[in-house]
Design goal:
Length: about 300
C-alpha cells in the first residue's frame, strides 16, 4: 500500500467515524419532531373520542421511543401516559393503572420526584385509583401532586387546576359532595385564571361541578352550571363535540329527574344532532344513544370524568 493510498484509507475511515459517531444524536434530534407529531395525533384522536386511533398511535409512539432510546427513556413515558388515558376512559382499569405506574416510575428517575411531569403522572394514577374505588390511595397521590404544583410551574396551563379537579372527582365518587363541591370551585377558579372562562378545561370542570350540585339538591345552581358549560362548548371546535355530548346528556338526565320530560327530550334531541356531526362508537356516544345520561347513583354522579 502506497503512502498516498494509506492516507486516503485513513481519511475515509476518519470520515466514516465522524459520520457514524455523530449519527445517534443527530438521529435522536430528528426523531423528536416525528414523536411530537404522533403524540399530537394520539391526543387529538382521544379528544374527539376516537379511542381506537388514540390507542394505536400511543402504542406506535411507545414502540418507536423504546427502539430508539430504550424502555426507560422519558420519551417512552409520554406514550405510556397517553395509552393509560385511553385505557382508563374505556374502563380497562388494571391495564391503565399499570401503564400510569410505569410512566410515573420513569419520570421520577428521569426528572426527579418534585417535577412537573411527575405531578402529571401522579394525577393520572390518582384518577385510576379513584375509578377502582381505592379512594385513600388516590387522595394520597393527588395531595402529593397538588403539593408539587404549589412550588413547581406546570408544563401546560391547565395542569394544576386539573389535579384539583381530579381530587374533587375522588371525593364525588365517595359521596363526599360538600368537599367535592369546594374543590370544584377551587379548580374552576384556577382554570379560569390559567386558561380563561371559556377554556375547555374550565368548561369540563363546570360540567363536573354541575353533577355534584345536583347531588347536593342545589338544582337551580346545577342547571345554571350545565347551561354555562353547554353554551361555552357549543362555540368551540366541533372536534371537541364529545365534551358537549357529556354536558347535554347529563343535563337532560337532570331535567328528567325533575319530571321536566319535554325539556329533557329537547336536550336529548340536541345531543343527537351533535352526535350526527361527529364519529360514533365511543363511550360518550353510546351513553347518549342509549339515553344513559342519568347519574350513576352508586358513584354519586357520572363515572365519566
Amino acid at each position: 500500500m502506497t503512502f498516498r493510498t494509506a492516507a486516503a484509507v485513513t481519511a475515509a475511515m476518519a470520515a466514516i467515524q465522524v459520520i457514524f459517531g455523530s449519527l445517534a444524536p443527530t438521529f435522536a434530534q430528528a426523531m423528536a419532531p416525528r414523536l411530537d407529531a404522533i403524540w399530537e395525533q394520539s391526543r387529538r384522536a382521544y379528544d374527539v373520542g376516537d379511542y381506537k386511533s388514540a390507542e394505536a398511535t400511543a402504542k406506535r409512539s411507545i414502540e418507536i421511543a423504546t427502539a430508539r432510546f430504550g424502555a426507560n427513556h422519558v420519551s417512552v413515558s409520554r406514550g405510556l401516559h397517553a395509552l393509560a388515558a385511553v385505557y382508563l376512559q374505556t374502563r380497562r382499569l388494571n391495564e391503565g393503572e399499570q401503564l400510569a405506574r410505569r410512566a410515573l416510575a420513569i419520570r421520577e428517575r428521569a426528572k426527579g420526584t418534585q417535577s412537573a411531569p411527575v405531578a402529571v403522572s401522579l394525577t393520572q394514577l390518582g384518577y385510576a385509583l379513584a375509578l377502582a374505588d381505592r379512594f385513600q390511595e388516590a387522595e394520597t397521590l393527588l395531595n402529593r401532586a397538588i403539593a408539587i404544583w404549589e412550588k413547581t410551574r406546570p408544563l401546560a396551563a391547565h395542569q394544576k387546576g386539573n389535579t384539583i379537579r381530579v381530587a374533587a372527582i375522588n371525593y364525588a365518587f365517595q359521596g363526599r359532595f360538600v368537599e367535592a363541591g369546594a374543590l370544584y370551585r377551587k379548580a374552576i377558579s384556577e382554570l379560569e385564571r390559567a386558561t380563561g372562562k371559556d377554556g375547555i378545561w374550565t368548561l369540563r370542570t363546570v360540567r363536573n361541578h354541575a353533577t355534584t350540585l345536583a347531588r347536593l339538591g342545589r338544582v337551580r345552581e346545577s342547571e345554571a352550571a350545565y347551561k354555562r358549560a353547554i353554551a361555552g362548548l357549543e362555540t368551540r371546535n366541533p372536534n371537541e363535540h364529545s365534551e358537549l355530548l357529556f354536558a347535554l346528556s347529563h343535563f337532560a338526565a337532570l331535567l328528567s329527574e325533575q319530571d321536566r320530560i319535554e325539556e329533557a327530550e329537547a336536550i336529548y334531541r340536541r345531543a343527537m344532532a351533535t352526535l350526527e356531526k361527529g364519529s360514533t362508537g365511543n363511550l360518550v356516544h353510546a351513553e347518549t344513544l342509549l339515553g344513559l345520561g342519568a347519574f350513576d347513583s352508586s358513584r354519586g354522579g357520572s363515572v365519566l370524568p
